[in-house]
Design a protein that fits this description.
Elements: E1 4-9, E2 19-24, E3 37-42, H1 68-76, H2 88-91, H3 103-113, H4 121-126, H5 128-148, H6 156-165, E4 175-177, E5 184-186, H7 200-207
Antiparallel strand pairs: 1-3, 2-3, 4-5
Helix pairs in contact: 3-5, 5-7
Length: 208
């Protein structure tokens, strides 16, 4: 995501060159025009794109944060799909199964789970401890980003908080392995030992 959404009263909405679109609440009896709620999408980098069409659910799997059980069962019921023969770092970008997982998220997920990016995805998902670690972090990492309000393309303060949160992606000491689509950052030392599950305190925050 390259922009931010802001909810406000219509009377306080200030349109600027960074405002790409604004949704205004419908008229209601007894509600002044300026009191109607509007939602603005602002993108100072102008990298966002809009397409008016039906959402293609067939190309997107369940949400790993809000539909975690469906997310897990959808993946585990398709392990015979040829895509799972590829490296796990590549498969994490497959939106049919890992909906919403992008480049920095996959690096942080694998780093925190202690899984080498070049491990075949089917091997990871066939091992109970590795599977639980991987799928658990697929939920916990994006959930933590939302809970903390982290934003890669925000203000200087937001970017500083985001950079401080990162452990692997574009960090000093991380190595890069090429992929079919994007660079994959990883730390070899983090891949040693047994896979690491999501800590209980973070699970509790995500479940709250």
């Amino acid at each position: 995501m390259v922009g931010t959404w802001e909810a406000m009263r219509r009377g306080g909405a200030l349109l600027s060159s960074t405002t790409q679109v604004m949704f205004v609440g419908r008229e209601e009896e007894g509600v002044e025009s300026d009191d109607r709620v509007c939602i603005c999408y602002k993108d100072k980098f102008r990298m966002g794109r809009w397409y008016l069409r039906d959402f293609d659910t067939e190309k997107r799997g369940p949400d790993p944060v809000r539909e975690y059980s469906l997310f897990c069962s959808h993946i585990l019921s398709h392990l015979d799909d040829p895509v799972f023969s590829r490296d796990v770092c590549e498969v994490l970008l497959e939106q049919r199964f890992f909906n919403g997982i992008g480049n920095y998220l996959r690096a942080e997920i694998l780093h925190r789970a202690g899984i080498h990016p070049r491990t075949p995805a089917r091997c990871v998902l066939s091992d109970p401890s590795a599977r639980n670690a991987l799928l658990g972090w697929c939920r916990a990492v994006p959930a933590e980003v939302m809970l903390e309000g982290l934003f890669k393309y925000g203000t200087d303060e937001q970017r500083a908080a985001f950079d401080q949160w990162l452990r692997c992606y574009e960090q000093a000491g991380s190595k890069v392995v090429g992929g079919r689509k994007r660079k994959m950052y990883f730390c070899p030392a983090a891949c040693e030992g047994a896979p690491r599950p999501v800590p209980e305190d973070l699970c509790e925050r995500v479940d709250a």
